[in-house]
Design a protein that fits this description.
The complex is a heterotrimer.
Chain A: E1 2-9, H1 13-21, H2 23-29, E2 33-40, E3 43-52, E4 55-70, E5 74-84, E6 89-102, E7 105-118, H3 125-147, H4 179-195
Antiparallel strand pairs in A: 1-7, 2-3, 3-4, 4-5, 5-6, 6-7
Helix pairs in contact in A: 2-3, 3-4
Chain B: H1 23-28, E1 43-49, E2 55-61, H2 63-66, E3 71-76, H3 77-84, E4 89-90, E5 97-98, E6 104-105, E7 111-117, H4 120-129, E8 131-136, H5 143-148, E9 177-185, E10 195-203, E11 215-221, E12 224-229, H6 234-245, E13 252-255, H7 272-282, E14 286-289, H8 292-298, E15 300-301, E16 303-312, E17 318-330, H9 336-344, E18 355-364, E19 370-371, H10 378-395, H11 400-407, H12 426-436, E20 450-462, E21 468-476, E22 481-484, H13 494-506, E23 513-516, H14 537-559, H15 582-593, E24 599-607, E25 627-639, E26 645-655, H16 662-681, E27 687-688, E28 691-692, E29 711-717, H17 739-751, H18 762-770
Parallel strand pairs in B: 1-14, 12-13, 15-19, 17-18, 22-23, 26-29
Antiparallel strand pairs in B: 1-7, 2-6, 2-8, 3-7, 4-5, 9-18, 10-16, 11-12, 11-14, 16-17, 20-25, 21-22, 21-24, 25-26, 27-28
Helix pairs in contact in B: 6-7, 10-11, 10-17, 13-14, 14-15, 16-17
Chain C: E1 8-11, H1 15-22, E2 30-33, E3 43-45, E4 49-52, H2 58-63, H3 65-70, H4 72-79, H5 84-87, H6 92-98, H7 105-112, E5 115-120, E6 123-128, E7 133-135, E8 138-139, E9 146-153, E10 160-166, E11 177-184, E12 187-193, E13 200-205, H8 211-222, H9 236-260
Parallel strand pairs in C: 1-2
Antiparallel strand pairs in C: 3-4, 4-9, 5-6, 5-9, 7-8, 10-11, 11-12, 12-13
Helix pairs in contact in C: 4-7, 8-9
Classes of the chains: A alpha+beta, B alpha+beta, C alpha+beta.
The structure holds flavin-adenine dinucleotide.
């Protein structure tokens, strides 16, 4: 299944970009992300937990970076894998994420080729596609909030955790690679959310 | 369902329209299927399935599952492999499929571990708690990657011991092609054709969706492995289990109940090897029942890609046909190699063609395994040859019906694969459907949103050969009979027609003939109930066993002192004329044993033979015992706004040699046509990167009552077979062969567009119309 | 009760719930079966319209004389749900609460301006169906709220309607697209099913229009509402196309009835 979309963040790439370098910031932006750690130069591991109607879901995911481009348009290619044991499902995504300037804002676009194996794979495309839109919306909102210079009031509702103001730590270029964590997390969230269909 | 016995009449003998003996029971749900049987205390089994399309198994964690209350045991593929060794690998052509994966997984949904628990819910919960670590391997998602890539589904080929002709493939490495059949005759490339048509055809994988789900119960009793299972192939299963457990055949018992449909889904190795291995390992009763979602993963119909050409010379004769066929057999070969050859050899179609060149290959991919399915691969190649000849007729400005008619094989003709045609009345079938749909009347094609068209197509298929059938008949003193055969009645009505055959020979009421359900302790060996072979093969054995009973009775009667005064009916002695009836039989048997209720037994065998394919040319003087010939004619309307096809009339004809029971023949033709309609218009398994996306009945599409044509006409054509029982042949598959191309040809006629990919969904039609 | 048990789930006809359970993706701890509660299967009719209890079956709505008379569009839409077996079991409350984007009755209820009665320990409130479908498989019901009735206004005399359901694969399948059109007092109401993540509604004033003008206007108002989800039943492109075909068919058909009336 191929998914592609883009969303806008009301901050310039130079403001948005460093956020992606900060695992703590990312953890707060990603709905349900409880853990996010870097294992080595190019691999990451994390865990997403979600709770809907008292049912707790937990999915581990990993990300391996294949290539990083850091020019005007910043791009990352990565392979992402997630697993939801309770739902007997695994997910694998070949993903590409890019950030480019758009006036005062940044456009973040992603393309991914997603394989969803196991029980979740039977749920079919509609749910996955729809959920991915929701997650994207939520993530974009949190990211925007994270870009704001002051703590934001009236921040979007979220299911887990609270959107906090990130400590924007300027990072050395070599850590650009962390961008990928976003994609990984977004997608693993999709997997988890897809599992939480409760019939309504 | 006991029926009210009526006076014996021809209606229940050969040629009679007797209703299936169990029709009411099936409809009302009082026929007990395997899954309905009370099993008492047993271990319910659930399996943990792979979430990877292709990966080495690094570790299987079972601790969590074992800790769940009510779980008796958790078994991994490695456990079974340790216990049973290479015998764990089974399959009808290649010994390549493990009951549980142990070294690597080859498709999403492959069983990796099994849980035995007190109840199914607990077993399932525990199966979910099993956790497997994998090392991913490059997946082979499609034919293209399989044929051109460098990842291999199996490290080496493992042809099973039973087929001598596959031995040369043993140990072959670095390939996903497990079998290749080649047919060469003449030189098609040298032919200077006046006109060549070419196509790249695709028929997708589909699923059988029998209403009854597969279920297997296995237990150990007296040191024997006993099994009650939903199978079309009890004799095969017994052999497989004997090999797996290293037991003599006498210590394995396989029994069945009436199947609730199958269409090939319940053949060879499904749940049985795992059930047997678990029952043996734990020496306890186990029950495996597939859910609907699991059934989708057990077996499928082969997706097939066919690139083919058909050439007519300047004189309008068919001079050459070529076909490159690739069957996607998924993770395990199953019977794919057989399908590849048997379908490849008819890929040019039932026509007089000068030269042919066919390459037919069976290819592994990382998908659920494909196996037998009504038509045995032939509908896929029929899609190709019947589209091609139609297109060629259009190109030459010929009428597609008349063009076919001119070139069809006739009685005595040598088909491209070298075998002579007998009892295969293609012309009769084609004429019958053309007449039925009033071919001569041009449809009102229309100019607006709705367009109309008509199409025909012909199909040819060989019966499975060589095969073996046996029958044992026990005649009871009261002139009722008990027939022991291993043919499995799955709704096709075999028990009914076999009784009709016995009744016809012995001149008794066929309701007095009971057919014993397959039970390998009791019923004799029979190759399989499949490939439309039973009416001919088992029917011949049944006829022979009844004949020998008749001879026996007449001999006994001849020994007995004449009692002309008995019942005051002296004409009844009938020994000289060979006349028998129920009363006379009862007398003869009673007189012989001097006891009521005594039994007389006879047995018979029927074995068909073939001559194997020539290694160079792929040809054979006798590739099959007999042929199935069928034709379909369609009138339809296409809504060009939505792309929806509405079938106005579909006629389906099959040459059955002789209809033992015309009502059942018509039902087979009708049922097959309906299944074919699904395949033509919307029925397909959708896979995305190895994941079955629509493997539930919510999303998998089957024809509903509202998809039926306004008019559906089954037509029986009878050109008797010299060696068939009463001239009869089977019919289970005949009706499905030509459905999709007939519909495709009618769509071509209606809107002028040729479709080469199935199914022809409304979206495909609209898209083609838009891009015209 | 809904507020006292752990992780409860309302069980109506169970036709949707059973599927989720079978697929192993539903994890509810307790089911509250409405079938045991008396009085939820009643249909009453008065001058204003109909009131149907949540446990009235789809089949009941299809066959009930009062529904056929007072709101024939609703009755027609319920007749298009699945097959008789499902219709005999599926409840109208469950059909609404399920909130799926491709159910057949919601487009009709949207066109008819039906309201949902929702009840919880906090009391009963009335929710217009036009505000009921919030997001993909999400309704305006609170987790502890029950649908306790559906109110359907009577179709005005002199109105015309059409319900068109189109399945792209098997004829008996779920809709690939469905539309309900109600033309009442020159106002054209359109409910769309399966063509966006939620059932959608649009209307326009057709005063003085010809049938062709009405069709054009209908296609214009629905255009921004179309946001189909691609699946095995069709791509976005195909579903958009279908939307146009069935909306045109439905508006034209209803218009013809108006002219003939
Ligand atoms: C084979 C099949 C084919 C189908 N085809 C179609 C079709 O073509 N068109 C179509 O429109 N639909 C179709 N359906 C869907 C069917 O209409 C719905 O499943 C049905 O309407 C749901 O009603 P139910 O009473 O069975 O709901 P349930 O399964 O009981 O419940 C569904 C959801 O609603 C909640 N719920 C139930 N009642 C209430 C209540 N009173 N208050 C609050 N929440 C409640 C439940 O908790 C659950 O979340 C099909 C279903 C099947 C099984």
């Amino acid at each position: 299944m191929k998914l592609a979309s883009e969303f806008s963040v009301p901050a310039s790439p130079t403001e948005v970009f460093p956020l992606f370098f900060d695992p703590d910031a990312m953890r707060r932006c990603i709905p349900g992300c409880e853990e996010l750690e870097r294992l080595d130069e190019s691999t990451y591991r994390g865990r997403l937990v979600n709770e809907v109607a008292h049912v707790r879901f937990s999915a581990g995911f990993s990300a391996a970076i294949e290539s990083v481009t850091d020019s005007d348009v910043k791009a990352v290619k990565a392979v992402l894998k997630g697993e939801d044991r309770k739902l007997g499902s695994s997910i694998k995504i070949d993903a590409q994420l890019r950030i480019r300037p758009d006036g005062d804002s940044s456009l973040v676009d992603y393309e991914m080729d997603m394989a969803l194996w196991g029980k979740l794979g039977r749920l079919g495309e509609p749910i996955i596609r729809r959920r991915s839109q929701e997650v994207e919306r939520e993530f974009a909102a949190l990211l925007a909030a994270a870009c704001a210079p002051q703590p934001v009031t009236g921040e979007p509702e979220r299911s887990t955790g609270t959107a906090a103001v990130p400590t924007v730590a300027p990072s050395p270029p070599s850590r650009t690679a962390r961008t990928v964590a976003v994609v990984a997390a977004v997608l693993a969230v999709i997997a988890v959310l897809a599992g939480m269909r409760r019939g309504r | 369902m006991p029926e009210t016995p009526e006076k014996t009449s021809r209606q229940d003998w050969v040629g009679g329209r007797r209703a299936r003996y169990d029709a009411l029971g099936r409809v009302r749900g009082v026929v007990g299927h395997v899954g309905d049987q009370p099993v008492g205390t047993c271990a319910h089994v659930a399996v943990h399935r792979s979430t990877q399309p292709h990966a080495a198994i690094r570790a299987v964690h079972t601790e969590e599952a074992l800790a769940i209350d009510g779980v008796y045991a958790v078994v991994t593929g490695a456990d079974l492999h340790k216990r049973f060794g290479e015998a764990l690998l089974t399959g009808p052509a290649f010994a390549d499929q493990p009951a549980l994966a142990y070294d690597k997984v080859r498709f999403v949904g492959e069983p990796v571990a099994a849980v035995l628990a007190a109840d199914l819910a607990t077993a399932r919960e525990a199966a979910d708690a099993v956790y497997v670590e994998y090392d991913e391997l490059d997946p082979v998602y499609d034919l293209d990657t399989a044929l051109n890539g460098e990842s291999y589904v199996h490290d080496e080929l493992r042809p099973s011991a039973v087929f001598g002709d596959l031995r040369h493939l043993d140990g072959v490495r670095d390939t996903n092609i497990n079998y290749e059949y080649r047919l060469r005759h003449g030189n098609p490339n040298k032919v200077s054709g006046a006109r060549t048509v070419r196509g790249e055809f695709w028929a997708p994988p589909t699923h059988h969706v029998p209403i009854e789900l597969p279920c297997t119960v296995a237990w150990v009793e007296g040191g024997r492995l006993e099994m009650l299972t939903t199978t079309q192939t009890p004799s095969y299963v017994r052999q497989t289990i004997a090999d797996l457990l290293d037991l003599p055949l006498s210590r394995v018992r396989v029994t069945t109940r009436p199947l609730g449909g199958s269409f090939g889904a319940k053949m060879y190795d499904r749940l049985e090897p795992l059930a047997a291995a678990l029952a043996w390992q734990f020496q306890r009763k186990v029950r495996l029942a597939a859910s609907r979602e699991e059934a989708f993963l057990l077996t499928t119909r082969h997706g097939a890609a066919i690139t083919s050409t058909l050439t007519a010379d300047a004189g309008g004769q068919l001079s050459a046909a070529t076909a490159d066929v690739a069957y996607d057999t998924g993770a395990y070969a199953d019977v794919g190699p057989r399908i590849t050859a048997k379908s490849g050899m008819v890929a040019p179609g039932p026509y007089r063609i000068g030269s042919v060149d066919v390459r037919s290959r069976c290819v592994y991919t990382n998908k659920p395994s494909a196996g037998p399915f009504r038509g045995f691969g032939v509908p896929q190649v029929t899609w190709s040859h019947e589209s091609l000849i139609d297109e060629l007729a259009h190109e030459l400005g010929e009428d597609p019906y008349a063009f076919r008619r001119e070139h069809l094989l006739r009685e005595g003709d040598l088909a491209p694969m070298g075998t002579r045609m007998h009892s295969a009345d293609f012309v009769g079938c084609l004429d019958a459907v053309a007449e039925s749909i009033s071919w001569d009347t041009q449809p009102d094609r229309g100019t607006g949103r709705i367009r109309r068209g008509r199409g025909v197509a012909v199909g040819v298929k060989a019966v499975l050969t060589p095969t073996i059938a046996n029958a044992v008949l026990q005649l009871n003193q009261d002139a009722s009979a008990t027939l022991m055969i291993s043919t499995v009645d799955m709704g096709q009505g075999s028990d009914t027609i076999m009784a009709q055959i016995v009744a016809d020979v012995l001149r008794v009421d066929s309701r007095r003939v009971h057919v014993v359900r397959a039970d390998t302790d009791v019923t004799p060996y029979d190759t399989i109930t499949a490939g439309s072979r039973s009416t001919y093969h088992t029917g011949n054995a049944v006829r022979a066993v009844a004949e020998s009973m008749r001879v026996r009775l007449l001999a006994l009667a001849a020994e007995q002192p004449e009692q002309p005064e008995q019942h005051g009916q002296p004409e009844r002695s009938g020994v000289d004329t060979g006349e028998l009836d129920e009363e006379r039989i009862a007398e003869i048997v009673h007189a012989h044993f001097g006891a009521r209720g005594a039994t007389l037994t006879t047995e018979a065998n029927f074995t068909s033979s073939w001559s194997p394919y020539d290694k160079e040319t792929g040809r054979s003087e006798k590739v099959t015992e007999h042929w199935f010939a069928g034709a379909v004619g369609v009138r339809l309307a296409v809504d060009t706004a939505t792309g929806r096809v509405h079938l106005e009339h579909l006629a389906v004809a099959g040459d059955v040699g002789r209809a033992i029971n015309p009502a059942l023949v018509e039902q087979q033709l009708t049922g097959a046509a309906i299944m074919g309609i699904g395949h033509a218009l919307f029925d397909q398994l959708v896979l995305d990167q190895g994941q079955l996306v629509n493997g539930t009945l919510l999303d998998y599409q089957l024809p509903s009552i509202r998809d039926l044509p306004d008019e559906l006409t089954p037509i029986i054509v009878e050109s008797p077979h010299d060696d068939g029982p009463f001239g009869a042949k089977g019919v289970g598959e005949t009706g499905i062969l030509a459905v999709a191309p007939a519909i495709g040809n009618a769509i071509r006629d209606a809107i002028g567009l040729r479709f080469t990919r199935l199914p022809m969904t409304p979206e495909a039609i609209v898209t083609a119309l838009e891009s015209r | 009760m809904m507020s006292t048990v752990d992780n409860p789930m309302v069980y109506g006809g169970g036709t949707a719930i059973q599927i989720l359970i079978k697929q192993g993706i539903l994890f509810a701890d307790n089911f509250v079966d409405l079938a045991g509660i008396p009085g939820l299967t009643e249909i009453t009719a008065d001058a204003a319209g109909l009131r149907a209890g949540p446990m009235v079956t789809a089949r009941g709505m299809e066959t009930d004389d009062r529904v056929r008379r007072v709101a024939p569009l609703a009755s027609t839409a319920y007749r298009h749900v699945a097959n008789p077996r499902v219709r005999n079991t599926a409840s109208i409350g469950g059909n609404l609460a399920h909130g799926d984007y491709r159910l057949d009755p919601p487009p009709a209820l949207l066109a008819l301006d039906a309201t949902v009665e929702a009840t919880s320990v906090r009391g009963t409130r009335s929710l217009p169906v036009r505000q009921f479908f919030v997001d993909f498989q999400q309704t305006a019901l609170a987790p502890d709220e029950l649908v306790t009735a559906v109110r359907i206004p009577a179709q005005p005399t002199g109105s015309a309607y059409r319900f068109v359901k189109y399945s792209s694969l098997s004829a008996n399948d779920w809709p690939c697209a469905s539309v309900a059109v109600l033309i009442a007092g020159r106002e054209v109401h359109i409910g769309l099913g399966a063509l966006a993540p939620v059932p959608r509604y649009a209307s326009f004033d057709a005063t003085g229009m010809t049938d062709q003008a009405a069709v054009d206007a209908a296609l214009e108002v629905i255009a921004p509402l179309l946001d189909p989800i691609p699946d095995v039943r069709g791509s976005v492109r195909y579903k958009r196309r279908l939307a146009q075909v069935i909306v045109e068919d439905a508006v034209r058909g209803a218009w013809k009835d108006l002219d003939n009336a």
